Amino acid sequence: MRHPATKSISQYDSGVAAGERVKMADVARAAGVSVATVSKVVNRRDGISQATVDRVLAAVDELGYEASLGARSLRSHRTDVIGVLVAEFEPFSTELLKGVSEAIASTGYELLAWSGGHRGTSVGWERRSLARLGGTLIDGAILVTPTVVDAGAGIPVVAIDPHTGSADVPTVESDNLAGAVLATEHLIGLGHRRIALLGGRPDLESARLREQGFRTAMAAAGLAVDESMVCNGGYRPETAEGPARELLTRPDRPTAIFGGNDLMAIRTVEVATELGLRVPEDVSVIGFDNVPESAVLTPPLTTVQQPLHAMGATALELLVEMLRSPDAQVADVRLPTTLVERGSCGPAPDADADADVSSRRPAS
Questions:
Q1: CATH homologous superfamily of domain 176-306+340-359?
Q2: CA–CA separation, 142 and 140 (whole Å)
Q3: Which residue of 79, 87, 202, 258 pairs with 120 in a disulfide if CB–CB is 3.0 to 4.6 A?
Q4: What is the value of pTM for the model shown?
């Protein structure tokens, strides 16, 4: 919204060439006041008449002036900017970021999204990112799936789904164990007994909990886990393709595969299709996350939904509370997971159909 002024600022010569950064002196020239007056207005200092404040703010709006974050932090020791730091922008982190973005408008803070550019393979990427941004560009940070949470940030930090689970900083996560139980029970309820797990990286707490949930549900149903069908897919499509292909080309291939996240499950469906197998008639596939890509797959992927937008919004809520009340005791938050039934899971083949399917070897 443009601030009121007696004349349009465009009637004044700001002296700013196209493409140049607008400086405080340009605002002062356009508003017909001193640079010192502009500084007082933009830094919310007293002693300036309302008419002058309106005129300066109108010039700020008209010219698009914005003080640099570094300069702002030097003056006030705050930037009013919250950072969301990720190893890379992929579907999981992007959905979390959307949740933060949707919730930030009412907080008075602005949002900076930052990628460490290490694709999650570099331990300690968050330390380097926080050292670069903390205190000069951002007032606090949300770390998405950090490898370490003891990052020595010097600013408030909230971690979403950290590699090692809960730590000294507040964390937000979904109920990975209960979600994996839901997925496995769904497959068992469809009559599947030969169920494979395409798990995540063993160093990640979420992967450990999802495997635990899988084993818990199998044991509760009186089913033995075939350890040769428990594979590490690494949470990435390219690392999941090999294990998925091995599972789908074995003589006693599973009738169902639980992918530890949607990206691995989606690649599993794609590999099955390449091999001439029908999903879900020949093999059922279930994922975990409910990223947008899961709904547009053919067939649409049955999955366990993490409330990703709510996780992002909750992390923001905790961080803002820490910024406004530094002594506040902020607790960890675990949000529920739910089953989303679509078209990639179906009844297990009966004995006759199973024998017929097994005799039809997929292409290597």
A1: Response regulator (3.40.50.2300)
A2: 7
A3: 87
A4: 0.76
